[in-house]
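Morning, I've got a small favour to ask if you have a moment. You're getting the sequence in one-letter code plus the fold written as tokens. Thanks so much in advance, here it is:

===
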Amino acid sequence: MKDNKVFIIAELSANHNGSLEVALESIREAKKTGVDAIKIQTYTADTITLDCDKKDFWIEGTELWNGRKLYDLYKEAYTPWEWHAEIFKVAKEEGLICFSTPFDKTAVDLLESLNNPIYKIASFEITDVNLIEYCAKTMKPIIISTGIATIEDIELAIETCRKAGNNDITLLKCTSSYPAPIENANLLTIQDMKERFGVKVGLSDHTMGADVAIAAVALGANVVEKHFIIDRSIGGPDSEFSMNKEEFSSMVASIRNVEKALGKIDYPTDINKIKGRQFARSLYVAEDIKKGETFTEKNIRSVRPGYGLHPKYLKDIIGEIAKEDMEKGSSFKIDRLK
């Protein structure tokens, strides 16, 4: 995020399917795709919700987890805290940045003991300003997803970080649907977020495929986060909207190509250093001209290549008199005027 490269994050989330070995293999396979970082989530069912059968605690109206109790879903999906040290260790061995999304202060305390380098705030936690403040006070970079946020929510989250003295803030444009319909991506918001809030901006993407992520980079995203799974066939709570290794590798390669294509703002001033400039149009003698003849649009024309006089002088030349004989195909110079 400091060398003008897009910071690409593979989100492991629940795609370990309750197996530490799958989690570690996922890190090693993610490394092969070319990502910069692996991200996990740090919570338990008890730190994120209540074990309660009341209606409020059951999921309704979502295609993916409809009819499930929050507590049961999070109990299945969480990453055991006793795995964290090994996950961080293997990620470091693979040369990946490993960081996490905490969901309460005890999770932050655990992550601090592991030297967690970045704190991610999940979309549904953007209103938890006490958690945001606790993370911000570590003075580590803060990445905040905005999937369910209003402008006021975003402003409050940023204000909370800045009041804590932390200005290293990245907002992620996000659509909190799983999977997210591509027509709801609204990527034009990325540039507006940069201008409106004065922070780095990226994308947390839940759409299927790589199109949205690649387009986001072209629109100025500094960060791209996608869910990663070794193979969707292993199943799990997040498998349906996660990318496998081959898909992730293809996306990373495309993003790196877009980075190259974006380049820099460049308006050349030295025409001699512009590749292909010799094929620009310029003024040439289009038919033999005798000394004393008048220049016309028939005998002086703007054509390729570009070794003659600039075409902007054509109107000034027409009607003037040749001071010497000129052969067809010779470049026109200003000193040929009488």
Observations:
- The chain has two domains: 7-43+78-262, 271-336.
